[in-house]
Amino acid sequence: MRIRKAVFPVAGLGTRFLPATKASAKEMLPVVDKPLIQYAVQEAISAGAEELVFITGRSKNSIMDHFDKAYELETELENRGKTKLLEVVHEILPPGITCIFIRQAEALGLGHAVLCAWPAVGDEDFSVILADDLIDGRLRPCLAQMQRVYQEYGTSVIATQRVPKEEISAYGVVDVQPVGPGLGEIRRIVEKPKPEDAPSNLGVVGRYILTPRIFKLLERTPRGAGGEIQLTDAISMMIQEQTVLAYEFEGTRYDCGSKLGYLKANVEYALKHPELADDFRSYLKDVASKLDTPPAQASGQ
């Protein structure tokens, strides 16, 4: 029971990062030295994915180019003897992995983006990864953690985390019946409720393992919050027919759809980078010492 197909909805406009995303995909924003979409792809492959389905839109050609073979670049690196850099380029997409690109003609929401993947997914269970939710799974990537739950229970699994009350209105929120530690069966799911109306503080984050039944449900899902077809609304119908589990993953999530979350991810990933960690840590200490120094003392007065 391995999930072979992973869907990446990458058609969003990335308006929170304008003007950087005016002509570039927000998923290509780098965290240290890798774009967000590459972290997401590596996570999917680590969980056993072999077919990667990208739901794209305007200005997303850079994603396609990133995962395409760059003959000129590889030849140049080889001729210059830059073996390590050549290995880095080869690691972007390992052998045996297939990429499929489907254009989402209209930006009608996450649910519609997932529905666009139906021709490529067919009648298989599949995963969905939102690249701007960067998750450091510590010992095991988030999707690989969810894969273990899926293998044990054989049903849909949604990643969740506890969120502060003041942030609840930015999430889909679930009410669960506990099944085990960090695991519960979803009884109710609400898209972006007011804090006082939320059924819990368990927010849904950008990782899903879904059965193909979701496609039929998305077909008849009306537009919901924001005038878009919400995946949350289709899942709400799904729990009336099938068991859907909420899993509290182990690890740290960075909301790279926000500028602050993106900056945090860059700092913390740089502090773990094998080539940069020591020098970057020293730099941060130097910056911190300057911030702690009174202005008069810093100017030598």
TrEMBL record:
CDD domains from the UniProt entry: UGPase_prokaryotic (cd02541)
Q: Which UniProt keywords apply?
A: Nucleotidyltransferase, Transferase
Keyword Nucleotidyltransferase assigned: yes
**Domain Nucleotidyl transferase intervals:** 10-269
EC number from the UniProt entry: 2.7.7.9
Cite the Pfam families for this sequence: NTP_transferase
What catalytic activity is recorded?
alpha-D-glucose 1-phosphate + UTP + H(+) = UDP-alpha-D-glucose + diphosphate
- Which principal EC class is assigned to this enzyme? transferase
As one GO molecular function, the record gives: UTP:glucose-1-phosphate uridylyltransferase activity
Matching NCBIfam families, A to Z?
galU
According to its UniProt entry, the function of this protein is described as: May play a role in stationary phase survival.
Which protein family is named in the record?
Answer: Belongs to the UDPGP type 2 family.
What this protein is called in its record is UTP--glucose-1-phosphate uridylyltransferase
Query: What is the protein's species of origin?
Result: Banduia mediterranea
Q: What gene does this protein come from? A: galU
